[in-house]
Design brief:
Layout lengths: L1 H23 L7 E3 L9 E4 L5 E4 L2 E5 L3 E5 L11 E9 L4 E8 L11 E6 L28 E8 L2 E6 L2 E7 L17 E6 L5 E11 L3
Antiparallel strand pairs: 1-13, 2-5, 3-4, 4-13, 5-12, 6-9, 6-13, 7-8, 7-12, 9-10, 10-11
Length: about 220
């Protein structure tokens, strides 16, 4: 009986811990949910050069040859339509990166599906942070290298809104016929991804969150 009681007590304690873990991974009251645990790359899948991505001091560090890190975790079954995602980002001088929307995993090359939202303050590419890359670009720089800032992307229907530190800096409405590349619409659904652009680009991402919106 004593052994049975000990077993039941241990089971209850385990259930309580499991319940706490489950609660901590649910949506916050405002609907945002974390997709990066601050310690590992669990739920993410790196392509081409996985060593470009590491985790240090609670942030994803992007540092190395071209690579892309795709979210493949459980939130929204990593297949988003109308949604928001945001991250705290820090660039270093000359670094270049991007936050992809409505994309899908591919083993090599620049992602063919979806849009890239640019991350770049001082790289030689004139398309700066907040650009819907090559479709509606931003030339102005709103933050400095070496400073943490928030990049926030809202995808609703055929519209993409980009905020930097809560300020709207770009609003792109996808036309019925997209003229670049294949000429097909790029908004639809898909996952998100972080870009490693080149070996000279070092960027930090943390506090990575998603908020799924109603269709």
């Amino acid at each position: 009986m004593k052994r049975l009681f000990s077993y039941l007590a241990a089971a209850a304690l385990f259930a309580g811990c499991a319940g706490s873990k489950s609660t901590s991974s649910t949506k916050s009251k405002d609907g945002w949910v974390s997709i990066f645990d601050g310690k590992t790359l669990n739920g993410w899948r790196a392509a081409e050069n996985p060593a470009t991505f590491s985790v240090q001091d609670g942030a994803i560090v992007v540092d190395g040859p071209r690579a892309h890190l795709f979210y493949e975790g459980p939130v929204g079954n990593h297949d988003f339509k109308n949604f928001e995602w945001k991250a705290s980002v820090k660039t270093l001088p000359g670094s270049n990166s991007g936050m992809f929307i409505h994309t899908t995993y591919q083993p090599t090359g620049w992602p063919a599906k979806g849009y890239e939202i640019q991350v770049n303050q001082t790289h030689t590419d004139w398309r700066k942070t907040g650009s819907v890359y090559a479709f509606q670009d931003v030339r102005e720089v709103f933050v400095k290298d070496g400073e943490w800032y928030t990049e926030h992307i809202i995808v609703q229907g055929n519209k993409v809104t980009v905020k930097v530190n809560d300020k709207v800096i770009n609003e792109y409405t996808e036309p019925d016929s997209v003229s670049r590349g294949s000429g097909t619409k790029k908004l639809g659904n898909g996952t998100v991804a972080i870009q490693g652009h080149d070996p000279k680009s070092k960027i930090y991402y943390k506090d990575i969150m998603v908020h799924i919106l109603n269709d």
